[in-house]
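Pilot study result, target chain (271 residues):
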Amino acid sequence: MSYNLLKGKKGIIFGALDENSIAWKTAERAHEEGAEFVLTNAPIAMRMGTIKDLAAKTGSQIIPADATSMEDLENLVEKSMEILGGKIDFVLHSIGMSVNVRKGKLYTDPKYDFTTKGWDVSAVSFHKVMNVLYNKEAMNEWGSVVALTYMAAQRVFPDYNDMADNKAYLESIARSFGYFFGRDHKVRVNTISQSPTPTTAGSGVKGFEGFLAYADKMSPLGNATALECADYTISMFSDLTKKVTLQNLFHDGGFSNMGVSDAVMDKFIEE
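Predicted structure:
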């Protein structure tokens, strides 16, 4: 069901890889709610995924961009405004990558070149995206910028490795840059802390199935799906949330406020 929540709005969606990704689901929902947008991903990710299918389905154009490259981002923003015929109303940053995780390096013994690369892709890229949007005055007033994060930024999940550090930095950038974006251009900036979700990126984390099952048993409402996260993201892009900014918004079925649940305790109580 659609409500025309984004009718007339224009945006940029980063990170749609395949139909399992939250960015993909968000693009589908944004289209259903009346938005026009440009899709973008790194050239290597585009070769791995099926983003062209999404573009055809949503009537969108694709602009390849390395989110760590200021030159690519400037080109992306300029071309997006040309294609969309004006300033941007919403942006989704759905980007995350850890080379240490991919290469099986332990948190206690990483390769620091890998750490730097993952930090740049997963967190600093968010600063770079907003830098370009801010300095080009590319966002309409009451526009909305959202980045996806995970609760490992606040609590220890050992196998999440250096992605936890990346997400903590990402959330800090949202608050700090969000202040200036709000003060100077009336643009709101938030992060959504999503349940563990079986996406291509998330599934690369060691012990991911355990993450998923544990969170589901801990959360009174169960894990939030990718589609449910897309719905929440759409609400953050809409005019219904115009005064929400600088927030890390937990979308996790209640997990973030739980100490322990009966379902988890039952696993430790002997019959």
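One observation from the pilot: The first strand starts at residue 10 and ends at 14. A full batch analysis is planned for the follow-on phase.
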